[in-house]
Amino acid sequence: MYDVSLWKHYSAAIIINKFVSCYNKCIKVFGYAGMDSILGVLIDLGLPSANTVLHNARTLFERQYRVSCNRIVQCFVARSI
């Protein structure tokens, strides 16, 4: 557990908010102004929102660990049911 104390200032909410902010800024690199609506930009480009990306990743992760053949993972699945 080397340098675990460095992580005490981070939480899941902070990381998710930083991801959403970065995702939105990166989308606007495609030639849109900073004041343009992110929803309008996403519709123009045909891209999903950051919340959709996070939801899809969470759903895929849950599906994958439920069908895992790993015995350790199966213990966690059995306890969560």
Verbal overview:
The protein has 81 residues and is mainly alpha-helical. The chain has 2 domains: 47 residues, no CATH class; 33 residues. Helix content is 63%, strand content 0%. It is built from 4 helices and no strands. The chain is flat, with a radius of gyration of 18 Å. The two termini are 30 Å apart.
Jot down its keywords.
81 residues, mainly alpha
What's this entry about, in short?
By secondary structure, the chain is mainly α. The chain is built from 4 helices and no strands.
Query: What is the helix content?
Result: 55-70%
Computed over alpha carbons, the radius of gyration is: 18 Å
Number of distinct helices:
4
Structural class: mainly alpha
Outline the low-pLDDT stretches: none
Number of E strands: 0
Broad shape:
flat
What series of H and E elements makes up the topology? HHHH
User: How many domains is the backbone divided into?
Assistant: 2
Beta-sheet strand percentage? under 5%
Mean pLDDT: 86
Oligomeric state of shown chains: single chain
What gap, in angstroms, lies between the N and C termini?
30 Å
Major β-sheet annotation = none
Write the layout of secondary structure elements.
Elements: H1 12-27, H2 38-45, H3 50-66, H4 71-80
